[in-house]
Amino acid sequence: MQSERTPPAGRTDEQRRARYNHLIERLRNRQITMEEATELFGLMQGFLRASEAARTAAVAPPPLEAKPPKRPSAAPGTVPVPAADDLLTVGILAMGAGAGLLAAITKKMAERSSGPSAPPPPASRPRPR
């Protein structure tokens, strides 16, 4: 079956979510092509970027006035707040771990569906004399 062409980049959020759900369903049914897998990965990255941008906008401090700071910027012994790039990296690592877990589960299911395999042959040992 030939894969559908990627819609233009200016598609709406609803269209992206519908395409994402379609690709996930094809992945679950093991019918996904490499082109579709690449598109799915791109969609996931886009969702991560949008989520990170929304999170950054939500936690961004209000614009500072020209007043000097009331306290030192970093006290010794405090834990620094992770940068936006660090959180994006963690998100990508989590997505990679999920992909690895999905691959392991798929392999295990394939082994189970192929039926029980023959037990390994016993190791031959020399007989004592």
Tell me about this structure.
By secondary structure, the protein is an all-alpha fold. The protein has a domain at 13-59 and 84-113. Helices cover 56% and strands 0% of the residues. The chain contains 3 helices and no strands. It has helices at residues 13-28, 34-59, 84-113. The model is unreliable at 1-7 (pLDDT under 50).
User: What is the general shape?
Assistant: elongated
SSE order, one letter for each helix or strand: HHH
Report the helical percentage: 55-70%
Distance between the termini: 65 Å
SS-derived structural category: mainly alpha
Give the SSE map.
Blueprint: H1 13-28, H2 34-59, H3 84-113
In short:
With 129 residues, the protein is mainly α.
What keyword list fits this structure?
129 residues, 56% helix, 0% strand
